[in-house]
Amino acid sequence: MNINFAGKVAAVTGGAMGIGAAVVELLSELGARVAVLDRDEEHGRELAGRLSEQGRDVSFYPCDVGELESARTAMDTAVERFGALHVLVHSAGIQRYGDVGSTSVEVWHEVQRVHVDGCFHAVRFAVPHFMKAGGGAVVIVGSVQSVAAVADSAAYVTAKHALLGLTRSIALDFARYGIRANCVMPGPVDTAMLRWAASLADDPEAVLEGCRRGNPLGRIGTPEEIARAIAFLASDWASFVTGAALAVDGGMLVPAGGISFQESGTGSVGKQ
Fold this sequence. Notes:
Layout: E1 9-13, H1 18-29, E2 33-38, H2 41-53, E3 58-62, H3 68-82, E4 87-90, H4 105-133, E5 136-141, H5 154-174, E6 179-186, H6 192-199, H7 204-213, H8 223-234, E7 245-248, H9 258-264
Helix pairs in contact: 1-8, 3-4, 4-5, 6-7
């Protein structure tokens, strides 16, 4: 038996690039009809057009998910086009840096708006369609920073923590309607956003090497690897899974004290 989304309709926020685009590709490959919701019209239309040429039913809907009416219009238009909604993947996100002193109020609200308000809006407008369909699955893209922190990332860490809390609230509040909600927590993934973040440093390659060495598997993940975890949680194979936080991080959260402590602290004693 294989995971199959035949007859299912999925909406993916932030679906134009990165993890979101990999999810669109995989779900459509597995038989789903997919709505791509993103404010990046160039990449969103290119992705939908390319997959449509391959015979897949994928459409793009311009959407600023952090803006209430934009999210409502995109979701309702997509459901009107496809006739139903069974899966929502919230992958929209941005990265900004700074601690609580150096982060401007504008940047703080920008990050919360995209991550948290965006997820709130997307789920709010997906739920009525799930109810009409007799149930549904929400998968929210969090981060290892949903349960841990990286320095100088106050707004991002806060937003990702909030997404895990929102996941659990959705799972609890809507279980009686057959609606499941789960959170995927990626570690470093080779996306344009990671490459952009590394480019801010004096030595971008050193940053990427740090990402590789920061987990036991010793490498950066791929968007496709995260997409496979998301597809599982969205599928009937995960029918008894809700409110879960699934780390897809190469083991990054496992080593006590981090990899450097394991290599040079007491964690290294057993290797001698």
